[in-house]
Amino acid sequence: MKKIWFFIIVISMFSCKNEKVEQLKSPDGNIVVAISNEKGLLQISHLVKGDTIIGNSPLGIQIQDLDFSTHVTIQDIEESTFDEKWHTVNGKNEIVRNHYNEKIFHIRGETESDISCDLVLRCYNDGFAYRFIIKNISGDSIQWKGENTKLNFENDFLYWAYNGEQHNIGPVRCSSSQAKVRTPMVLELDDSLYMAIHEAEIVRYAPMNIQLDGTEKSLGFIIDETSEKGELQTSWRTFIVGKRPGDLLESDLLVNLNEPCKIEDTSWIKPGKSLWDWRVWGYKAKDGFEYELNTISHKRFIDFASENNIQYLLIDADWYGPEFSDSSDPTAAREGINIEECMAYAKKKKIGVILYLNDVGAKKFGLERVLKQFSDWGAVGVKYGFMQGSWEDKVRHTREVVALCAKYRLMVDFHDNPVPPGGDRRTYPNLITREFCHAQADAKRSYFPETAVTSPFINMIAGPLDYTNGWFDLNNAHSRIRVFEEIPGTVAAEVAKLVVAYSGWMVLPDSPEEYLKKDDLFDCIRKMPPQFDSFKVLDGKIGAYISVARKAGDNWFIGSLTNRDARDVELDLAFLPEGKKYKALIYSDAANSHYTEDKESYQVEEEVVLAGDMLKISMAPGGGNTVFLEELK
């Protein structure tokens, strides 16, 4: 395949002279998708600079006994263009441009039916998306049996895929894989062309999965059967395209495919940094204090947060009793916790409190009743855990939780195998983050450095992630009650993860005392803003390394991570404003640092840099590096 791909074009691949082919171009003309309807077959195709990427591929949906991919005609086509800029509340960038061209294909079967199908296709400068809208004019219930789309790739490719609370799948060669995988799925089509397949606006039906057959270079979509009355509207099937993996991560295509914000006043939605009690239980400070699940410990957290530019405290599970017990009432705290006293103390110190809520308690004692009580106490957010039910149930309940949280001015973080993000934070920006990943030490196991340089390129395409990064006590944390394995990695990498990982809440898992032991390193975290202004991937390779730059007012942070290999990287500072001078504080691994053998050694250095400079940094095996660029006035 050619290495240059500036134009994605579609050429006619059909020999019949009276074929029906409709093309849709992106606003810049670089992306074109073709929809054909020859001999009653609905097909999609996609080429890159004359090289076929997706050849003629069946496209359609199965509703009851109607197959809207064969024996169909396109009766009418509506075409439109849209262009706007909107401000984010909880986003990677302050301003997002939503610019696309759209065609709606009105599809009918050959037999008379009350059921009709519309195919909505949109092209953006960084990809394309489609969805089906099924209408039944009789108003009767309709059964969605599946999707008959099968994308036929012309050439073999490598892929990676989301894998729940474990290290992601990949790299795997498509032609050798007979597997069902979850999305996001990232494809390396060649070394200068990547594609991410996922969904947007996942609000009613179960998330799709992808099936590879192991013999052909093709993939299909697996959909859970469901039914609906009147109208059925699928989520958007999304295809983000870029020259490098970082382009997929920078894309705003998913949020642009969701409805605008439904919350009229968003002033109370404030991303930030948070301390977390859960992993600190059992930690003994030098002054003899031992952290437990009680108000005394929570006040100690609050004091530290108020003095160190940390905005929140997350009080995790069991604060109202054993979280999985149906007798544990989330509207009444357990013995040892005075929730009203804690809230009053936090308010005095200007710290917000986030409360854990298990699905068992929410459903047993009434979701709205519980959320209202949290709000009346003065909580600012909810961490929602272990949602039960089918995937369709979980999708719909997620939207219910988010909407009710908005009603009571509560931000929300979903944990424990949540529904995939799909850009829905645009509609409800109080949906701050999700544990759509393997967070360090969660699932009672640790992850190794390769996960930290794979997840950003896969999981984070979907949306903000709660990794719970920022461990400082890497040598002894596993002796605590809620840390089950030794944590591999370096302390310099733990700081860098806070820059690389995009999340509305940066949840810090360690004790105040451990942060103060390395005060000069922790000062980098103090300097981080509650919310960054931008997100730019400077360089990276899936599973190897990544470098991300994020703006913070007039200043910048650059976070870099590597896998188990030591690595030197040159950071191109061309993104800085021309003529500006910066003091660079560089938080690095020490010469002898190692992710298992010497985890807590680090060094802090300083130099002056200009826009356009190349800044060389070094990372130890499993390590990382953070650069704080402070503008010199």
From TrEMBL:
Keyword Calcium belongs to the record: yes
Residue span(s) of domain Glycosyl-hydrolase 97 catalytic: 283-435
UniProt keyword terms in alphabetical order: Calcium
Gene Ontology MF annotations: carbohydrate binding
Domain Glycosyl-hydrolase 97 C-terminal oligomerisation span(s) in chain numbering: 532-628
Superkingdom to which the source organism belongs: Bacteria
Stretches assigned to the Glycosyl-hydrolase 97 N-terminal domain: 24-260
Record carries keyword Nucleotide-binding: no
Family matches, as Gene3D superfamilies: 2.70.98.10, Aldolase class I
Cofactor: Ca(2+)
Any one Pfam family match given in the protein's UniProt record, by short name: Glyco_hydro_97
Known partners and oligomeric status: Monomer.
Protein name per its UniProtKB record: Glycoside hydrolase family 97 protein
Species in which this protein is naturally found: Maribellus comscasis
